[in-house]
Specification:
Two copies of one chain form a homodimer. With 365 residues, the first copy, chain A, is of the alpha+beta class. At the A-B interface, strand 2, strand 3, strand 4, strand 5 and strand 6 of A face strand 2, strand 3, strand 4, strand 5 and strand 6 of B.
């Protein structure tokens, strides 16, 4: 089907994450210099500019520009995952710069690769954007992705760019990440066994704290806001956990209680989390989380338990395993009806007593 | 970031491909049984139903449900490509069934894998959809993808589902395909050399013909309409072309002249297409293309030269090569400023003389 010659961009009614109309921020579609728009620069011009920002993947045998990319998979298996980020749901252009969005979109996928015990090798990016999207904004996203990938030796090796739906002024980014297991077994969500140690790598609650700050119209403390804009997943901790035989692992993208619940369910076990250990791991020494929580009259434990998008990793290890660098014990696995407990409380009760609205993301509600 | 609790679905002004308002078709968001909506069924319920329709990939070591999938890559390299399909641009729910959309979305990606000389092993699917999307529609898409993949032994091994942008009532599908080269060199677009034979595998003009029928409100001849809804890429012809040493190859998704132009450019050569050979390959014996063209007063050669989405394959072979099954010679490669000629005419002149508006897709115009 030919693509249309004219595009009706609807006048978007922007809504905050809570569904409440907010003071209208910058238009969803940045209308800067018209000469910079995707419509004027054209598909191939935009792709050229974006590819120039994308760096080179060490594992790429064929990079962008052909029908498909060719990526080395020395293990003989490839780990692959995909995430979709929608403007107005997963990012806002008035809260995050283009470079921030690139970092965040890459991180969400790279963390999923790490959560299998693998090392990321390459990304692909699908983009649906309104024709008046600024090319410089897309270059910023590419630069952010490249910067997030570079320490891993990964980069964007291919993608697709199309015009957004005729009724939409919003950008949709779809990112696929590939990874290599280096001969190790993949660490699934289903392998936790009673007696295992539950351990955490990375930060929790920081992204939610930064979001709370942004929602109230503030931009400091910068550490919290930056954590929301550019999460810092502990990529190396994934493969490191596989070496001493992690029995199960997952990325914490929807919040600790929610994702621990998925792991517990898939493994058919109870994850007994220790509140004191969580406090030690996530809230000591006191920092921006306490500072913001105190200013807002909230309990920072709500963010630790239910805040998403930090992309920390949760894993279970055999009791005799020495936890690798970056991992901290926060509980133990026991037998029983699958679920999560926090120092004996149910997940729902623990979330409630911290003042959280639920145990994590509820999609499509 | 939490996803919103309420979603504003804009009242979409549907526009035809030509940008002209058309008689309002079925609403972009199918509102059947509310109990069938994604909002009510919920993310995990929908994923469960969709996965149940998705079949199993022979190469999948870990399928849907974990942080990432694990797909065998016996070649030690993986071919990977991604395509984004936007409702109202790449498909219309009143012109194609859910199963059709699944077939088409899979085919576009599987053909890109074939165009590298590889065999597809797995798909991943990212989906952004309005919360009132019918779950049964998504099941139909999954069934169509599964049916398109099954003959190759491939299947969907993972994905992501999120709510569409707050301002959009349209569905965005993002499909990533993986493939294996089976020890063969990847066939790029850049390897054509003067003296090579230009050859075609698959059909041309059928999808454009079907689109012309649908645009005028008709649904027959069925063969043409079906070709638009479910293209028939010659998957096996890709790896088959690699064996006798195809020097360059590409998928014809934007139209023969447009994509041949990319191959010519990347190889730095002239592709001299032979009009009589093209007529023999694409318009003989006479069939639906002539029938529809005659009814509409159009030249079927316009569809052959510029119609997209049939996902035929174009390749160049060394002069001494024996063309594999499914391939037909349609021209020769010569030296000169990169471009495409049709029996001596420039691509633009050939398109014009067939009555086509341009040489192929113009994106973001």
């Amino acid at each position: 089907m030919r693509r249309p010659r004219r595009v009706a961009v609807s006048s978007a009614t922007y809504r905050s994450d809570g569904g409440r109309p907010v003071t209208r921020p910058r238009p969803l579609v940045a209308r800067g210099d018209p000469a910079d728009s995707v419509r004027v620069v054209g598909e191939f011009g935009v792709i050229g500019r974006v590819v120039a920002r994308s760096g080179t993947a060490a594992a790429a045998e064929v990079g962008p520009g052909d029908d498909a990319a060719v990526v080395r998979a020395p293990d003989g298996r490839v780990v692959v995952t995909t995430d979709v980020l929608v403007e107005g749901r997963h990012f806002r252009r008035d809260w995050s710069s283009a470079v921030d969005v690139g970092h965040k979109a890459a991180a969400a996928n790279l963390a999923d690769v790490a959560a299998m015990g693998a090392t990321a090798t390459a990304l692909l990016v699908g983009l649906a954007c309104p024709p008046d999207t600024a090319t410089s904004w897309l270059e910023g996203v590419a630069a952010g992705m490249a910067a997030e990938c570079a320490p891993l030796g990964a980069a964007v090796v291919g993608g697709d760019m199309v015009a957004a739906a005729p009724d939409s002024g919003s950008i949709v980014l779809s990112v696929t990440a590939l990874g290599d297991l280096g001969g190790r077994a993949a660490v699934l969500r289903s392998g936790a066994r009673a007696g295992d140690v539950v351990a955490l790598a990375g930060r929790l609650g920081w992204s939610a704290c930064g979001l709370a700050v942004l929602r109230r119209g503030f931009t400091s403390p910068a550490a919290a806001v930056t954590a929301h804009r550019r999460p810092l997943p502990p990529y190396a901790a994934g493969p490191a956990a596989a070496l001493p035989g992690a029995t199960a692992m997952c990325d914490l993208s929807d919040g600790l209680l929610a994702d621990a619940g998925h792991l517990a369910e898939d493994s058919g076990v109870v994850l007994d989390l220790d509140r004191a250990a969580l406090v030690r791991a996530c809230l000591e020494p006191p920092g921006p989380l306490q500072q913001v929580a105190s200013a807002l009259g909230e309990d920072p434990m709500a963010w630790v338990l239910t805040g998403g998008e930090d992309h920390a990793l949760l894993a279970t290890f055999p009791p005799e395993a020495v936890l690798p660098e970056g991992w901290t014990a926060i509980g133990a696995v026991s037998a029983g009806p699958a679920g999560v407990r926090v120092s004996g409380e149910s997940a729902a009760a623990a979330a409630r007593s911290a003042g959280a609205e639920g145990t994590g993301h509820v999609h499509f509600s």
